[in-house]
Design goal:
single chain, alpha+beta, about 150 residues
Length: about 150
């Protein structure tokens, strides 16, 4: 009888801990759902987590940055190469959502990228580094409406 109680306790504790241990297990890509504010840079951001290949067991990440002074866009920043590489148009639908910067136009500081460097929006790009053409999911559009 004691063995059965121990087994039931182990199963119960394991089931309760499972959602916390791997909340996004099985997802190839996902975003944080809550925007954080950077007092240093005066912007809001969420993290975009992704796996370039299905068999990868860890996630790579980029930042999605929202500037209240530019309320129509969410910018993507690669923390490894330390450059902005594109932007998503808030409220967009269909095939007119994302502008990918040419390599020569990718900069560490958004102020160094002229508006004309952003091409007309197109489809969401593929997951960074992916070889299987799986498109990125759009970022959360629940951007904060107030300035800090």
């Amino acid at each position: 009888m004691k063995a059965i109680r121990v087994l039931l306790l182990a199963v119960t504790l394991g089931a309760a801990a499972a959602p916390f241990a791997s909340a996004h297990y099985g997802y190839r890509q996902y975003y944080d759902t809550t925007w954080a504010y950077s007092t240093t840079y005066n912007y809001y951001y969420v993290t975009y987590y992704y796996q370039p290949v299905v068999t990868q067991t860890t996630y790579d990440y980029h930042y999605c940055i929202y500037y209240p002074s530019q309320p129509n866009y969410i910018y993507y920043y690669n923390p490894v190469s330390q450059v902005y590489w594109g932007r998503y148009e808030i409220g967009s639908k269909g095939d007119k959502r994302y502008s990918i910067l040419a390599d020569k136009d990718r900069k560490k500081d958004l102020k160094e990228i002229p508006e004309k460097a952003f091409p007309e929006p197109g489809k969401m790009p593929t997951i960074p580094g992916a070889k299987d053409s799986v498109a990125m999911e759009p970022p959360p559009e629940n951007v904060p409406k107030d300035k800090k």
